[in-house]
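A.,

Following up on our hallway conversation. Structure tokens first:
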């Protein structure tokens, strides 16, 4: 469970950094990059959940 919290904290930091950089660079939030990243995060979380359920 600690690995999952660390993973999610790291991803949250990356999302915040992307938002800040896109606001500084363009003056607006680039939702395309954030949407792709959130989709990949959900895919990774579902795969990890499936693997942990498969082990049990």
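Then the amino acids I'd put at each of the 56 positions:
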């Amino acid at each position: 469970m600690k690995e999952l919290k660390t993973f999610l904290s790291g991803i949250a930091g990356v999302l915040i950094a992307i938002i800040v950089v896109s606001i500084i660079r363009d003056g607006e939030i680039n939702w395309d990059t954030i949407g792709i990243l959130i989709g990949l995060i959900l895919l990774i979380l579902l795969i990890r959940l499936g693997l942990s359920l498969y082990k049990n």
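The chain has two helices and no strands. Curious whether your intuition agrees with the design.

B.
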